[in-house]
Amino acid sequence: MSLKKLILFAGLLLPGFISLAQTKPKDGFWRGVFTMAGGQQAPFNFELKGKTAYLINGTERFELPGVHQRADSLFIPVDVYNRLLAAKIENDGTLSGTFNYLDTSTPVKPIPFRAEHGKKYRFFEKPAAATVSLQGKWDVVINGQTKLIGVFEQHANRLTGTFLSTGGDLRFYEGVVQADSFALSAFDGSSPQLFKGKVSGNELRGEQVSARSVNPITGTRNAQAVLPDAYSLTTMKKGVPFTFTFPDAFTGKPVSLHDPKYRDKVVIVTLMGSWCHNCMDEAALLAPWYEANKKRGVEIIGLAFEYKNDPAFAKARLEPMKKRYQIGYDILFAGIVDAKHPSEALPALSEVSVYPTTIFVRRNGDVAKVHTGYSGPATGQYYEEFIKEFNSEMDQLLKESVPENGHQKSSK
Q1: pLDDT reported for residue 120
Q2: pTM of the complete model
Q3: Band of pLDDT at residue 20, cut at 50, 70 and 90
Q4: Domain 245-410, CATH among 3.40.30.10, 3.40.190.10, 3.40.50.20, 3.40.1080.10
């Protein structure tokens, strides 16, 4: 969807925004607050610099180009997720508006927010002293069933970290510890999130709050907390060859894993989607890695599963992702992301339920490994360990050759 259409859409959502006034919001730092389920508030921080905004979460600054003003309305597109912050400029230091989900398969109610200029704090400008610490790793359970690992860094009152699951991490969270209470929020342009609660010794209790629901959380401090092996969750079916043919997401040309371009090369196949924040983190690694290593005999194919079974929709959604991360490898449109289609489209896999899922294919076409999920930069040590493991695995695969008899052999 073009910026012009985004603005028109938001204008329909936010009636009365057009007026004769042309007050411009101040450049600089802003503190916003989303109104979430149950009336709870999830703060977020951003910076305005002319036609660009930056969402701030811990050490991350997520760039949002294309900021546009129309009369007394400000529009901040989140092109890569097809979202839009649309706000009335009440004065040069105050915004009020909604966060809108565009082109969804079913309508999604906008999330209200307000923002004030000149405030850089997250939750409290002057929090009380912390009497507990969340430093380290925690086993966390949401609503009695969803298991995560919380990984936190605490310095005095300031709290940062993330939550890891078998599908990947929940990206950068930032917050505060005040007395025995904690609060963490995150907004990277996808969906705002809030975690809050109290700590007693090695236990925590609280709530996970989204725009639509409030769920109880419990946690236990555990320095040895681990997730299941990411290479064990999705496997290859015996006797079923790993092959596919899908249209190029941008040209529509059919592309097969058996095409000459991929013959005798190591191929990384990643199952992804424009809606998937862990896929964005993976693309941020793979795109520059591919440019640096493609001459070694390696190719990457992204198989995009999207919210609509519509090639035009997929192309429109994937173009911002390709541009943002300067993706030079092939991206194919593999169809709709639902409970059945991805597994049916790739019958050689035991199941497709996690994005990204990354398949490492040897030069002779055999699958070496299947990795589910992605632990991105927000996970710190987990991310660093994965990069080392990834590079080591690729070095080994790239050393392998395909002799004339078609059997795999390592070259010295």
Answers
A1: 95
A2: 0.90
A3: very low
A4: 3.40.30.10
